[in-house]
Amino acid sequence: MENVITAAPKGRPREFCVDQALAAALGVFWSKGYEGASMADLTEAMGITKPSLYAAFGNKEALFHKALDLYEAEKLEYMRKALEQPTARAVVEHLLRGAIDAQMSSCDPKGCLGVISMSACGAEAESIKADVMQRRASSQAALVERFEQAKREGDLPEDVDIAGLTGYLFAIFQGMAVQAGSGATRADLERVVATSLMMWPGR
Questions:
Q1: Which of 110, 123, 172, 179 could form a disulfide with 184 if both were Cys (CB 3.0 to 4.6 A apart)?
Q2: Using an 8 Å Cβ cutoff, are 76 and 162 in contact?
Q3: Mapped to the 3 state alphabet, what secondary structure does the chain carry?
Q4: Which residues partner with 4 through β-bridges?
Q5: Which of 79, 181, 69, 202 is nearest to 132 (CA)?
Q6: What is the C-alpha separation between 95 and 89, in angstroms, rounded?
Q7: Which residues on neighbouring strands pair with residue 14, listed in sequence order?
Q8: Which residues constitute the signal peptide according to the record (predicted)?
Q9: Ramachandran assignment for 152, one of left (phi > 0), alpha (psi -120 to 50 degrees), beta (any other)
């Protein structure tokens, strides 16, 4: 756990934990979105001054990218584990149920940080959108490869459009995230998962 010492008012040094401050910033971005999170919101939650934030993390945009790294490392671990499941259907079930757990967590805001941040607009937000899109493309590419493997192994029918199937699955993810952020219950999302699995083309 890294600590940073920055200049506090009247020249007195202040030490704070970078990991804790970043986790606090993530909570603000997740609940308010990139544009909705003001510098005052961030510094108050992080327990630091604006100069300390700039010194440790750079500007708001750089802070968001670091928060997104933390979000992927901690909140999306289930996606990496899903790719290790023995069948394509098991991969999908692990992903969808993991998404429900993440979106319905009692200690985190509802919805998906990536989906929330894609609604940001303005010149500064363009790099935010580009980063989120690049990360999503990387995740989709990994899933496409896993489903291609399933097709080679006979776990998926030969005529399945893997790219289309993966895009459909991500549309379900995004829809669940929007619903979670709009007040859907766990039972509501469980029905979405159950219906999606009923329509799955593989075993």
A1: 179
A2: no
A3: CCEEEEECHHHCEEEEEHHHHHHHHHHHHHHHHHHHCCHHHHHHHHCCCHHHHHHHHCCHHHHHHHHHHHHHHHHCHHHHHHCCCCCHHHHHHHHHHHHHHHHCCCCCCCCCHHHHHHCCCCCCCHHHHHHHHHHHHHHHHHHHHHHHHHHHCCCCCCCCCHHHHHHHHHHHHHHHHHHHHCCCCHHHHHHHHHHHHHCCCCC
A4: 16
A5: 69
A6: 10
A7: 6
A8: none
A9: alpha
Query: How far apart are the two ends of the chain, measured CA to CA in Å?
Result: 45
Those residues whose C-beta lies under 8 Å from the C-beta of residue 2, and which sit 6 or more positions away, are 17, 18, 19
Computed on alpha carbons and rounded to an integer, the radius of gyration of the chain in Å comes to: 20
Share the mean pLDDT of the chain.
Answer: 82
Asked if residue 63 lies in contact with residue 41, where contact means CB atoms within 8 angstroms, the answer is no
Q: Quick check: 158 and 71 in contact, CB under 8 A?
A: no
Residue type present at position 177: A
Per residue in 48-63, pLDDT tens? 999 999 989 989 989 9
Handedness of CA 99, 104, 106, 111 (dihedral sign): positive
* CA 80 – CA 152 distance, rounded (Å): 21
Tokens of 164: 């289309």
